[in-house]
Amino acid sequence: MIYLTKSIVSASRTLLPRTSYQLTPKPAWPSMRCFQSTAMAHKKIDFAQKQVSEAEMFPKEESSVETNKGNKKGSEKHAGKTSSLRRVAVEAQRSRQGFVKGRGSKRFVDPEVDTKTVTAYCAAETYNISTAARLVEAQGYELDPLQTGLYPQVIHVRTRDRPDEVKDTQEGDIFIFPSGTMVTWNVREREALHLVNRVLPAAAEGSHLDLLETEDLEYLEDSRRESSEVVGDTIILGTKAEHGSNDAPRETGTDETEQRHEIDTVLAKIAFSSGLARSTKLAILETLLSDYQHSTREIPIMLAKGDTKTLGRNDVPFTRSFILRKTGELLNIRAQLNLYSELTDSMPDIFWDSRHELGLGEYYDQVGRALDVGVRIKVLNEKIGFAQEIASVLRESLSEKHGLRLEWAIIALIAVEVALEFYRHWTDAEERKDPRSTESLLRQYLVKVVDGQK
Predict the structure, then answer these.
(1) In principle, which of 16, 20, 214, 351 could form an S-S bond with 360, CB 3.0–4.6 Å?
(2) Of all helices (H) and strands (E), which one includes residue 365?
(3) Is 333 exposed, middle or buried (0-12, 13-18, 19+ CB in 10 A)?
(4) What are the recorded Gene Ontology BP terms (predicted)?
């Protein structure tokens, strides 16, 4: 019996595998014919099931590890996909916002964006447009290359291509206005100063190269925008074509549409340039008024002290010519501000005939608001008013001084007349007292004649 048990156990050990991936179906309970044999068989079956279950435990752990690895890979793929989607969303948001960041009054241009420069030069009171056009054309520039039809009111030329000298091979634009200003877009400073200092002075009236005023703004071109605007001190120039321009057939209207869109972009540049030229012209008048105030700043102090003999540090005589010269300077500044230029106009005449949808007047106003032109004009007029009061006081003082001189002259004449009359009466009295005087002798002679007749 013992042998039988050992044989069964050994047989079970040799027959059962150590590792199995298939579960053996649970056998039916055998009939209890032989207690010993059925018990051993039942133990055999339980041992086999235990081995099988232990064998199945390891593949499950491996499969769980593989599953975890797969989950990690899936999570990594999902994370990578999420980051890429986030990146796309950020780029989409950036494309929607463009180069402008922030909202409302806190909007600003992304400082990482590369910008170009637009510069205004004011070197004269006015430019003779026909003479300036002839001089510029003699330098090799083409007048009005896009045929905008604005030549009598503004001169538009483009810089010549110099890829070996200029890093940015894009052509620059130059606009010359009758107000004595020139505005350049993406033009080298050396070329601009050559035109201002060497070419245009022959067409200038009231040239003041010694008081050359310049003013700069940054600008960039945004191909995602149809309209333009000014954000801070940067001009956002929209270069996207209008949607309505796609209605024309491609075969016949593409070139014409592109040319029209380019003309609209140039008109926008002219609007911004006109606003910038207005600010530069105003800066010249501010400088002139500042110099005028510096030359007359001691007059109120001198009047307060009651000293009207000398003025300023150089002992300038308080004369009629000095007062007239200062009055003429002040009137010239006031006339240039309010009469002889378009500084105080809400919109220049050049934009009245333009299409309303271009919004050129709005561009002109945006530059004015960005550079505080309206406030500066108001302050300048107030300063001119104060200087006018000083000039009025000087004129009144001069008139009073002149009247005082006349009064003293009249008094002197009257005094001389009185002295002469007093002298005459004194001499008459002295003659009466002198017995040898002509009157006494005549009186004696008459007395003798009368006595002889008697």
Answers:
(1) 351
(2) helix 360-370
(3) buried
(4) positive regulation of mitochondrial translation
pTM: 0.65
d(CA 410, CA 398) in angstroms, rounded, equals: 18
> In angstroms, rounded to a whole number, what is the distance separating the alpha carbons of residues 232 and 105?
9
Closest by CA to 267, choosing from 352, 382, 329, 339, is 352
User: What distance in Å separates the CA atoms of residue 404 and residue 418, rounded to the nearest whole number?
Assistant: 21
Q: How many CB atoms lie within 10 A of CB 104?
A: 5
How many whole angstroms separate alpha carbon 149 and alpha carbon 119?
Answer: 23
pLDDT, tens digit (0-9, with 9 covering 90-100), for 42-84: 444 454 454 544 444 444 444 444 444 455 444 444 445 455 6
Is 382 a residue whose pLDDT tops 90? yes
Could you give the maximum distance between any two Cα atoms of the chain, in Å? Answer: 228
Q: Are 115 and 218 in contact, with CB atoms under 8 Å apart?
A: yes
CA angle 78, 80, 83 (to 5 degrees): 110
What is the spatial distance between Cα 148 and Cα 240, in angstroms, rounded to a whole number? Answer: 19
Instruction: Specify whether the CB–CB gap between 174 and 183 falls below 8 A.
Output: yes
Token couple for 387: 């200087």
CA distances to 43, 47, 51, 320, 341 from 9, rounded to whole Å, are: 9, 10, 14, 142, 121
Enter the DSSP assignment of 114: -
pLDDT at 124 (0 to 100): 93
Helix (H) or strand (E) holding 301: helix 299-305
User: 404 pLDDT exceeds 60?
Assistant: yes
- Domain locations along the chain: 2-86, 116-296+341-371, 408-448
The C-alpha torsion from 44 through 49 and 52 to 56, rounded to 10°, is: -170
- At residue 339, what is the residue type? L
Token pair 């050992």: residue: 6
DSSP 203: G
Q: What is the pLDDT of residues 435-451, one digit of tens each?
A: 666 767 777 778 888 88
Q: Of 157, 131, 135, 153, which is closest to residue 144 (Cα–Cα)? A: 157
Residue 14 CA: distances (Å) to CA of 2, 10, 11, 37: 18, 6, 5, 18
